[in-house]
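Morning!

This is the sequence you dropped in the shared folder:
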Amino acid sequence: MLDLENILQQGLCESEAGWNMGSFGAIAEFHHVGEEAPPQPNAPLCQVTARGGVRIERLEGVRPVAYETLSPRAHRWSQAVSLCLPEAEAMMHRRDVLTELGPDTAALREEDRTAVLFDMGLAQPQVDFCIRTADENLMRVLRENAGRSLMEQGNPAMGRILAAHPHRVALTKIGRVEVYQMIGGPDTGGKSPEGPHTHVLPKLLRAGRTHSANTPIPDGWVPCAGFHPESPVFDRMGQDKDFSRAAFDAFQTLLRAWGPEDYLSAKRACWAALEDNREPDSMSEPASRTGRAGLRNGLRQWRRLHGGGALIDRWSVAFDASTIVDEVDEENPGH
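The structure's back. Tokens below.
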């Protein structure tokens, strides 16, 4: 049996790993950037840099779910481990208006513990998505508009937040992610900065979901944090890289232990057929979304592991010739 705490601690010391906490449409991400020194062992299950940080505070009752998702790029796939709690245990406050919470005494850095937290009021099930500031001018505007929705037409608070770039803090029952960098927008050329950053996407928020439909979370469970081990096919900036067999094999160990069986069985079946030189008509497309993803990613991975050829080309034409839009992750459409 795999030791979850040990795996997460190792992941926190890997510069290519990434972390997130949030919901479907509001997410805070943490990872290192190229010029930073390699991460060193920190307090248990915690990493902090000048750009942001992450702390895992609870593992009791946590269920890890490992999975691979489809990419619209036919030579890629994504991978992650969601740390889940039962639905009733995962729920946060679901405030739907801007709310002052007081000093953030549990901040990752001592110098931030007198700054004031404000829940943005996004009403998300498993995360209190907050901003934190010691800026008196910003606090004045936030306090004047406390009790109102940030999405309310004519509310000046959101504009002031976007201009002031306060820290963002995502709080869940498992821990927190903090982001100190600027908010992606006009001041950053319309792009999120490299390294820790946040996304608040009103269109996705309106769906009222805890996670993407393409994330195979078991019924009754809610993802409260995400761990993204090093990808074997793209780097931390999302650029293609030479295939890393070591990164691939490391994640397959997690997937075999914590992955969905219909995904694993579909991948095993297509690999067995390819090993036996069978044609694609020897296999039926799986009925489930997760199984279809397992088949398609299995073909992509076979090509990376064994190279191309006429047989794998025929399988790809039969089962992976085009991207099915609703089976690509809405939150990471370019990956």
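Headline: The chain is about 25% helix and 20% strand.

More detail when I'm at my desk.
O.
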